[in-house]
Specification:
This protein is an alpha+beta fold and 341 residues long. Among the domains are: 87 residues, Alpha-Beta Plaits; 80 residues, 2-Layer Sandwich (Alpha-Beta Plaits). Helices cover 17% and strands 25% of the residues. It has a 4-stranded antiparallel β-sheet. β1 and β2 form a beta hairpin.
Length: 341
């Protein structure tokens, strides 16, 4: 992860602006809020398609190290520190209100959130019950009748049957030494019994005729983790959670407008969006003209990266609200309000 100090000034206090290149999604909010026009964000299209392009250029002669860029960045790519303390931890400076939480009491550890997260920020670990604890029955193989054809071993869906094969000799022409059933794996499905050509296998499944006979309630244990360094608060996890165990608070509210006449289908916006909120529907038939750009706003954080990336100005992101802690400075309030419409 490339993290560097891009501007520093010392005096009564030491101010240091730190930039995390990997976290930056070239949305341009820092460029827009800067009161002295000291920041230039590189074109997103060039950033995603070429290597060795700096995402942000800072004019140190203009920068006054005020911290507005640090406060507005929704991805925490910029951090102004005063005497080594982040302004995000200083109450006098406003910070964006955003969060992502998983209720462990509700979570069933299905891993849906982990699978859909566009940033790989969620990790679910789970401990599943032993298969043998969820089934009950009996199985017996008559080794005197068994001809060691291997059909049961090949057909067993649980890989519970194992034949100890051997090389036949003139002294002992048999092809196997033994056949065993791992009852920790066996689910008593009776497939082996049905396919055995010599009826050497007997199986009784006690669940089938007696329902939940002798079966205890299965328990899945686990834990969840959201990496705040990676999470962009997009809401994919919240929307896909089947038990409403996840709550996401986004820093911005707004709308996205797409001018289909101007859109050329270059897909630059799709590439730069950190939330996977944009996509082009796939044609249902070969040769069919692809549909226009689709935006799923419930996954959008209204950062504006797509708008900045669009070469034909086909996308307009309108922020109607910015959630933040109290702003004490009138000048800061004016700059924050300038990002809303």
């Amino acid at each position: 992860m490339e993290i560097e100090t891009i501007h520093e000034r010392s005096g009564k206090e030491t101010r240091e602006l730190i930039f995390n290149e990997e976290k930056c999604n070239v949305c341009g909010l820092c460029e827009k809020i800067c009161p002295v026009n000291a920041i230039e964000v590189s074109p997103p299209g060039a950033v995603v398609r070429e290597e060795n392009i700096s995402k942000l250029i800072l004019d140190e002669d203009k920068c006054v190290l005020c911290g507005m860029c640090s406060s507005i960045c929704p991805y925490d790519a910029l951090d102004l520190q005063i005497d080594k303390k982040s302004i995000k931890d200083i109450p006098e400076y406003p910070t964006l209100i955003k969060s992502s939480e998983i209720d462990e009491e509700k979570c069933i550890y299905c891993k849906s959130c982990e699978i859909v997260c566009p940033q790989g920020a969620i990790t679910i670990t789970r401990e599943l019950p032993e298969r043998s604890e969820l089934v009950t029955g009996e199985i017996e193989i008559d080794k005197d009748k068994c001809i060691f054809c291997g059909v049961c071993e090949e057909m067993c869906p649980a890989a519970a049957i194992e034949i100890e094969w051997k090389e036949p000799t003139s002294i002992d022409p048999s092809t196997a030494n033994d056949i065993r059933v791992d009852e920790k794996k066996c689910v008593y499905c009776m497939i082996c019994k049905r396919v055995c050509p010599v009826n050497a296998i007997k199986v009784i499944c006690k669940v089938c005729p007696y329902g939940e006979y002798e079966i205890k309630e299965p328990e899945i244990k686990g834990s969840t983790y959201i990496d705040s360094e990676l999470c962009v608060n997009c809401g994919w996890c919240q929307e896909t959670c089947p038990v409403d165990a996840i709550k996401i608070e986004k820093p911005f509210e707004g709308t996205v407008e797409i001018n289909e006449e101007l859109c050329q289908g270059c897909a630059t916006c799709v590439e730069v969006c950190p939330c996977n909120a944009l996509s082009f529907p796939k044609p249902s038939k070969p040769g069919e003209k692809p549909q226009k750009l689709h935006i799923e706003e419930k996954f959008c954080v209204y950062c504006g990266a797509c708008e900045k990336a669009c070469p034909t100005d086909a996308i307009k992101v309108r922020r109607t609200n910015i959630k933040h802690t109290p702003i004490l400075s009138k000048a800061w309030k004016v700059r924050f309000d300038s990002l809303k419409e």
